[in-house]
Amino acid sequence: MIKARNSLGLVFFPAFDWAISPTHPEREERLLYTKDQLFEEGVEDIEGIQFYNPIIANEKDIQRVHFCVPDVESRLTKSHFISAGGAIRAMEAKMKGEVDKAFAMVRPPGHHAQRVVYGDRGFCVINVEAVMLERIRQEYRDLRVAIIDTDCHHGDGTQDIYWNDKDTLFISFHQDGRTLYPGTGFLDEFGGPAAYGYNINIPLPAGTSDEGFLYLLDHVVLPILEEYKPDIIINSAGQDNHYTDPLTNMNFSAQGYAQLNSKLDPDIAILEGGYSIEGALPYVNLGIVLAMAGLDYSHVREPDYNEEGLKQDKRTSEYIKELSRHVYKRWENREELWAKNIKGRENVILKRQVYYDTDGILETQRQNFIVCNKCSGLNTIDSQSDSGYHIYAITIPRDGCPNCLDQGYRIYKNASPGAYTDVYLQDRINDHYCAK
Amino acid sequence: MIVGLDMGGTHIDGVIVSEGSIIDTIKTPRYADDLFESIWMTLEKLLMGHDISKIKRINLSTTVSTNAIVEGKTSPVGMIIQSGPGMPHDFLACGCENSFISGYIDHRGKVVEDLKLEEIEDVKIKFKEKNIKSCAIVTKFSTRNFDHELRIKDLLEDGFSHITMGHTLSGRLNFPRRVFTSYLNAATYHTFRDFSTSIQNAMEQKGADIPLFILKADGGTTSLQEAGKKPVETILSGPAASFMGLNALLNTQKDALLLDIGGTTTDIFFLADGVPLFEPIGIEIHGYKTLIRAIYSFSIGLGGDSSIDIVNHELKIGPKRHGPPYALGGPKPTPSDAMIALGLMEAGHRQMAIDAIKGLGKSLNLSVEDTANKILDTMSNMIKAKVDELLVSINSKPVYTVRELLHGKKIEPQLINIIGGPANCLAAILEKKFNLPCYCPRHYGVANAIGAAMAKITQDITLLGDTSRGILSSAEFGFQERISKDFTLEDMRSRALELLKRKAMELGAKEDEIEAEIVEESSFNMVDGFFTKGKNMRVEAQIRPGLAGDLLVANPQEHKYSIKDDKYDQSKK
Ligand SMILES: [Zn+2]
Ligand SMILES: [Zn+2]
After folding, report:
1. B2-70+192-240, what's its fold?
2. Do A40 and B175 touch (CB under 8 A)?
3. What's the gap in Å between A144 CA and the centre of ligand 2?
4. Domains in chain A, number
5. Is residue B407 within 8 Å of B346, Cβ to Cβ?
6. Do A366 and A276 sit in the same domain of this protein?
7. CB-CB under 8 Å, B176 with A42
8. Judgement on whether residues A269 and A374 belong to the same structural domain of the protein
9. Considering CB atoms only, which of A14, A41, A51 is closest to B87?
10. Do residues A237 and A201 touch, judged by C-beta distance below 8 A?
11. Fewer beta carbons below 10 Å: N end or C end of chain B?
């Protein structure tokens, strides 16, 4: 039998009895053909590949990352706890040294879930990766982590969660927000005052193929990672850049995905989107598994793969080249850009509207990042939804200084209950969460 | 009357069971190398004085296929493998000739690329030049569409004396295992056929018209004729026989741990609500992982004759056996010596056993008695540790639904049933270690033969229904028919049970004995855009595995280890 070069933990949990609705893309059947393909290929017999069942995440794991409104229990189904638990089990296997790498093929996905959660947006309720990572940081240590979001949609949820966290570099490449949901993910979304430059977006033109993705990997992502030197690399592994995906307009192939993972060499991969369940997922997932295990993936190919037909045009190649140069330059100049845009400010206000497409809810929020020269600083969110809530939420960051800790609790105490339906406090220093 | 025969490594055991009672037993050493001769002589001796016309069937557990594989006495096989895109495939080359051919079928069973007929012609010529008589054809996803395998077989038919097609051996997905299983089947085909012909001829000469059944690794039987087509199913029936024997002697409906503690090894089995636990995919033999359904068993190198050493001031028992116990003239102290020294067991020279244990005690600074007790204690700890580890892994087997993850069955043994030489002596200790009641049956000497006798026909089926393509199929049954758009899961269930019953009767089962059940089922809506275009349904059904009836001795109370545990307790005082 075949022996993996890297031992690989697989959490494969297709949740065959859960769907958003019977004909929704996020339905029971989604990983059925992936299971067939992986099983027929004999992946479970590869020496060095180990299957794990998910554990079940708990309420605190969710509160560490999200302000669920009104509370965790009313926003989540069992499947969400299991999906996050699957990711946690995967990373735990890595941290315990049971395996070199781990891949959680779990559903539902999570990268559109932001800190405030009124409902489901982009098929996501909680951010599976963030829930995983924060639990692991709590149980093990403060890791320096890079999350590379390879889903075709902008990982706006992950961006929101790690916006002001310098220890979590977030890079998302995706189909340009001007042509695809959620409509964000532009270059100037560059991070909060304490992490300016550590949120990197690379919006790509429709029709980008293997060549384009691998080009920006070589010319932007890998050089940045080289400098950032993370302890852990996480691939937020959406598969909807595939040329057969019904919701997007890209030309990425299973070969491309496998090569990307081979080059990126992530420690952890978590399945995100990807809804070409018959024509893409079985092959892309197989490609990722083989690439992560360090095995030969050169024979992985879709039935209708046509290399010539998928080539990107010259203009796209030129555009991506220019874009890559620009993004990398911004990364190199992040300190100057910080001096120009942030330096000297006492706080940074972020106002925006968030639409929950799956549940049809509109949220209006105002975030305040209070600059502190001793820590990342406090952050508050004042948010209203057209589903009838008006909440106030305070976050004391993991690296919070004693002053910010005190001030955080003071703000929480003083927040007038009359003015809000709910008030929340996230004390990441003491891993303590409360609401009133 | 039913006859059970089991070929062990050194002995052949036989029993005659009539209406739940064991009416005769035999244990003979294996003569020479001729398996058939050995079996036939044992059978003749066993049947002496019995009315042959009353024998309903003979169930035989044989090592013919196993030995051929392990000893490398198989026929050369020409492998035709269609691996398509996906995993690398070089490692699948297991035949003496291997042809990787073009064409491929996808996970839905759609032909993506057709066969190239001229390639098959070339293969035929190449195999013939090498004088190959046995072939196996395996295509990826042939359980979803076996058209390519059938067509290749048609093209080769006239040239070879045997051809195995992958899809006939199992309905389960796992291409590498399908390749290896098919290889082993083709490789043992002629050896098994010779054996089967000898038996049939001998029976005919004797004028005995008794149906003959062969024990499979899943603890069930199949007809001699069917075993002739799928000899690979008869591999490793020994542990299955021992499991079935243990189960027959001490029947239970609970979760249970079953231990067979022999001279060299301890075999570990489990029952879930009284039903045998199976290997998750299939059994492994001689480095080949297969799709052969088999009773779950785990063997550790620890038995009555395991040699004992002192390593770093600690007792080290096994995993090697260097001969019989010291008390019986062996070279090393063994757990049996500890039992003999304590007076728990009567064999050989007790003084020699005491001397051997004393030698170990010196290095440990312990008396003979304490040393001997420590040995039995250590042995029990080793068994307990392994059982706990196995249970963790069994109970964490992958599941795929929220329901199973939250409420799935976990095996938690409520009792322990033990057979083997040291069983009685260890029962009291194991009972304390596990905090579970232990039972030891009396007739364990021929347990394997009893297991064979009490086995019944087993068969399983995987039925796939795809209403968007309008196809209902079962690969291992070679079955395919058209279905309409409104074919339901309920229709699937009844078709599966019906096909299964028909097959069981073909194999020789009586209609009223057949207990068919659905073991797994699923139904998925297939959606195109936002419209449902059909259902993808999967049903697995089986003849409920287990015993053909109750053995009258199978009353647990009768078998409480009490016979000897008094002595054990005294020795501790
Ligand atoms: Zn997406
Ligand atoms: Zn501070």
Report:
1. Nucleotidyltransferase; domain 5 (3.30.420)
2. yes
3. 20
4. 2
5. no
6. no
7. yes
8. no
9. A41
10. no
11. C
> Tell me, what CATH number does A20's domain have?
3.40.800.20
How far apart (Å, rounded) are the C-alpha atoms in residues B53 and B334? 47
For residue B171, the chain A residues in CB contact (below 8 A) are none
How is residue B7 written in tokens? 């070929």
Q: Are residues A350 and A316 part of one domain?
A: no
A28 and A72 co-located in one domain: yes
A340 falls within a domain: no
**Crossing angle (nearest 10°) for helices A128-139 and A78-95:** 50
Count of C-beta atoms within a 10 Å radius of residue B73:
11
Written as six digits, the tokens of B347 are 């064999």
Phi, psi of B296, deg, nearest 5: -65, 125
Nearest ligand atom owner, CA of A149:
1
Does residue A327 sit in the same domain as residue A388? no
Residues A351, A236: one domain? Answer: no
Residue with tokens 């890209």: A250
Q: Identify whether A174 is a catalytic site residue.
A: no
Q: Which residues in chain B are closer than 8 Å to A51, comparing Cβ atoms? A: 398
Number of A/B CB contacts below 8 angstroms equals 111
The whole-angstrom separation of Cα B35 and Cα B322 is: 27
Distance CA(A370)–CA(A401), nearest Å, equals 13
Distance to chain A for B148, nearest Cα, Å: 17
Per-domain residue ranges for chain B?
A: 2-70+192-240, 77-186, 460-543
Kindly state the helix (H) or strand (E) to which residue B181 belongs, with its residue range. Answer: helix B175-206
The A residues from 293 to 312 touching B (CB cutoff 8 Å) are 295-296, 298-301, 303
Are residues A374 and A330 part of one domain?
A: no
Distance CA B491, CA B511 (A): 21
CB A192 within 8 A of CB A170: no
Please pick, among A111, A112, A153, A154, the residue that the annotation labels catalytic: A112
Q: Which of B182, B395, B400 to mutate to test the interface with A (most CBs of A within 10 A)?
A: B400
Task: Copy the structure tokens of residue A274.
Answer: 């990807």
Which SS3 state, helix, strand or coil, does residue B128 take? helix
Rounded to an integer, what distance in angstroms lies between the CA atom of residue B7 and that of residue A376? 75
Does the beta-carbon distance from B91 to A1 stay under 8 Å? Answer: yes
Q: For residue A431, what are the domain limits?
A: 346-435
Are residues A53 and B174, on separate chains, in Cβ contact within 8 Å?
A: no
| CATH code of the domain occupying B77-186 | 3.40.50
Rounded distance between C-alpha atoms, residue A222 and residue B234, angstroms: 55
| A311, A335, A359 - which closes a domain | A335
Q: What is the pLDDT along chain B (573 residues), one digit of tens a residue?
A: 999 999 877 788 999 999 888 899 998 887 666 778 888 889 989 999 899 889 999 999 988 898 889 888 899 999 999 999 999 999 999 999 999 999 999 999 999 999 999 999 999 999 999 999 999 999 999 999 999 999 999 999 888 999 999 999 999 999 999 999 999 999 999 999 999 999 899 888 888 889 999 999 999 999 999 999 999 999 988 889 999 999 998 888 999 999 999 888 999 999 999 999 999 999 999 999 999 999 999 999 999 999 999 999 899 998 999 999 999 999 999 999 999 999 998 889 999 999 999 999 998 999 999 999 999 999 999 999 999 999 999 999 999 999 999 999 999 999 999 988 888 889 999 999 999 999 988 767 788 999 999 999 999 999 999 999 999 999 999 999 999 999 999 999 999 999 999 999 999 998 888 999 999 999 999 887 777 889 999 999 999 888 888 887 655 544 454 333 333 333 332
Do A288 and A358 fall into the same domain? no
A79 has a chain B CB within 8 A of its CB? yes
Residue appearing with tokens 């952050």: A379
d(CA B237, CA B119): 39
For B142, name the nearest residue in chain A, comparing CA atoms only.
A40
By the 8 A CB rule, do B544 and B245 touch?
Answer: no
